[in-house]
Design brief:
Blueprint (H helix, E strand, L loop, with lengths): L6 H10 L1 H22 L4 E9 L11 H18 L2 H11 L5 H7 E5 L5 E8 L2 H23 L4 E5 L14 H26 L6 H7 L19 H15 L1
Antiparallel strand pairs: 1-3, 1-4, 2-3
Helix pairs in contact: 2-7, 4-5, 4-6
Subcellular location: Cell membrane
Protein name: Capsular polysaccharide biosynthesis protein
Pfam families: GNVR, Wzz
């Protein structure tokens, strides 16, 4: 076989194996759809917003130094929110059947650049439980920060709420189907090219020239007539030949 293959030959090979490629594609998409719809539990996400500010401000106004000080505390608060001190109290208050490590994986803490607002996001298979965890985390933080850092500068500005018809954030079924389509096509094309690469049989005169490096002296055309002839037909053919020879 040739070590290199032209783009035109590649398209011919893929066209010849289009049924195989399409079958693998359909199977891949079907498996992804079944798993996404029936085996993966939907995960919901809710969030609450916490404002970090100063306990007492002169003339009820912020100044540049206050804001910079608060911004420096953001990273510290991000760590404290997901610390076992906070999470263990959240578990106890809500009587959750989980551990701090598992709860840690459900909570995501982030803040906008140069912002004093912290977003506490919670993902859970139960939307009501996710709301309770998010709000309880903010409440426990607000209470415990007085003891941990001797400050009272946390305000919950947007508690989590259980919205109607909330859509799960995962599984992302359209994305899963797109990924399955790409994977199915790649597998189908890969199997096709592998079969062609492993097939060392000689099919055309060009294969003889490429593999054996011999010149083509002649070709045998395909025989279209029936391979077997009945006895009567054979006798008739022999009579015709005898008659012509005479």
């Amino acid at each position: 076989m040739k070590e290199t293959i032209s783009l035109q030959e590649l398209f011919k090979i893929l066209k010849k194996r289009i049924v195989l490629i399409f079958s693998i594609l359909v199977m891949s998409v079907t498996i992804a759809a079944v798993v996404s719809y029936f085996f993966l539990s939907p995960i919901y996400e809710v969030s609450t917003q916490i404002l970090i500010n100063q306990k007492e401000l002169e003339q009820n106004q912020f100044n540049t130094q206050d804001i910079e000080t608060n911004l420096q505390l953001i990273n510290t608060y991000n760590v404290i929110i997901k610390s076992p001190v906070i999470l263990s109290k959240v578990i106890d208050n809500l009587e959750l059947n989980t551990t701090t490590d598992l709860l840690y994986e459900k909570i995501e803490v982030n803040s906008e650049q140069n912002s004093q607002v912290i977003n506490v996001s919670v993902q859970d298979s139960n939307p009501i439980r996710a709301v309770n965890i998010a709000n309880m985390t903010a409440e426990v933080l607000q209470n415990e920060i007085r003891t941990l850092m001797n400050v009272d500068n946390i305000t919950v500005i947007s508690p989590a709420v259980n919205k109607k018809n909330i859509k799960p954030v995962s599984p992302n079924i359209p994305l899963n189907l797109v990924i399955a389509t790409v994977i199915g096509v790649m597998i189908g094309v890969g199997i096709t090219l592998l079969k062609v690469y492993l097939d060392t049989s000689i099919k055309t005169e060009q294969d003889v020239n490429d593999i054996l490096e011999l010149s083509i002296l002649g070709l045998v055309s395909p025989i279209t007539q029936k391979k077997s002839i009945d006895s009567k037909g054979l006798k008739s053919l022999r009579k015709q030949r005898r008659h012509k020879s005479v």
